[in-house]
């Protein structure tokens, strides 16, 4: 059975009531007797437990899956290697241009 939150519009009294979904809503305030006792909209409270899809697929909260993270780190490592290779070839080249004059297959 669900728990419903009620609030009186006349006196402001609040109360949580355990009742069946098929029961009629309460209208009379138990505190002041006014006919302004109404259900309030509340957020549902629940917790996912166990080893189901939530625990295996979404519980980490990282936002990306492991294969996507591995691909991104591989791409970053490749870019870093290319950057260091271009830096080392630029350091080996004389200030006037390429070491071989640009007529070889390496440039």
UniProtKB/TrEMBL annotation:
Coiled-coil annotated residue ranges, if any: none
Domain of life, per lineage: Bacteria
Signal peptide: none
InterPro entries recorded: Regulatory_FmdB_Zinc_ribbon (IPR013429)
Annotated segments matching region Disordered: 88-107
Domain Putative regulatory protein FmdB zinc ribbon intervals: 1-42
Record protein name field: Zinc ribbon domain-containing protein
Organism: Ideonella paludis
């Amino acid at each position: 059975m669900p728990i419903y939150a009620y609030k009186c519009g006349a006196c402001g009294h609040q109360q949580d009531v355990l009742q069946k979904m098929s029961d009629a809503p309460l209208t009379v305030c138990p505190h002041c007797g006014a006919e302004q006792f109404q259900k309030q909209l509340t957020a549902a409270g629940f917790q996912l437990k166990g080893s189901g899809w939530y625990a295996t697929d979404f519980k980490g909260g990282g936002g990306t899956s492991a294969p996507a993270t591995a691909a991104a780190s591989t791409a970053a490592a490749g870019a870093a290697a290319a950057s260091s290779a271009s830096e080392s070839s630029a350091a080996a080249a004389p200030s006037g241009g390429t070491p071989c004059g640009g007529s070889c297959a390496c440039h």
